[in-house]
Design a protein that fits this description.
Distance between the termini: 11 Å
Helix content: 25-40%
Shape: elongated
Radius of gyration: 27 Å
Largest sheet: 6 strands, mixed
CATH superfamily of the largest domain: Ribosomal protein L4/L1
CATH architecture of the largest domain: 3-Layer(aba) Sandwich
CATH class of the largest domain: Alpha Beta
Strand content: 15-25%
């Protein structure tokens, strides 16, 4: 069992949460986490770049002049890429960069990423986060109390408009709800803050006590 400290918004340790690492896969599958991150990046690519090859430009297919004896370069028709107005050499074509990642692999990658954060002491559990109004200063004060000065992922159990609005002007802070969490978000942030309710939702009520 892993013991995870629980803090309040003032940065004081108030409790300890026990998490069974077997629920998160037992060991970190680094190769699977990397595959998930690579797939995420690949799926963001549009693949719509396209240029004209010599087959796409207008022009005669007649060879301009005979191969030898004229003193000119040995070239073919006017569509060649060495001529002005000719086609591109190695022209770009539209393509689909998408990489499929089955649901069970995505879930396993997320668990491994969370376990890596736990083992590296980069995950903090927050007892609760209730903001009265959308104020960036309040969220910045919470991060300062928790000594968070690097890129951070804040995970909530459910949507909270005040938290979202208070966090959007903080460039190194990303807010997600537990059901939307993915391995890329976890792996690419250096620190992770999870509310107590969100942590129980991630690892299961029976394993977090």
């Amino acid at each position: 069992m892993l013991e995870v400290p629980v803090y309040n918004i003032s940065g004081q340790k108030i409790d300890t949460l026990k998490v069974d690492e077997q629920v998160l896969g037992g060991t970190v599958n680094a190769a699977l986490v990397k595959q998930a991150v690579v797939a995420y990046h690949a799926n963001q690519r549009q693949g719509t770049a396209q240029t004209k090859s010599r087959a796409d430009v207008a022009g005669s297919t007649r060879k301009l002049y005979r191969q030898k004896g004229t003193g000119n370069a040995r070239r073919g028709n006017v569509r060649t890429n060495v001529m002005k107005g000719g086609g591109m050499a190695f022209a770009k074509r539209t393509r689909d960069f998408r990489q499929a990642l089955p649901k069970k692999m995505r879930q396993a990658a997320l668990k491994s990423a969370i376990l890596a954060k736990l083992l590296g002491s980069d995950l903090m559990v927050l007892d609760g986060l209730n903001l009265d109004a959308p104020k960036t200063a309040q969220m910045a004060k919470v991060l300062q109390a928790l000594q968070i000065n690097r890129s951070c992922l804040l995970t909530l159990a459910q949507r909270d408009a005040n938290v979202y609005l208070s966090s959007r002007n903080l460039p190194d802070l990303t807010v997600r709800i537990a059901e939307e969490l993915n391995a890329y978000d976890v792996a690419t942030r250096q620190k992770m803050i999870v509310t107590l309710d969100a942590m129980k939702a991630l690892v299961g009520q029976e394993s977090a006590q």
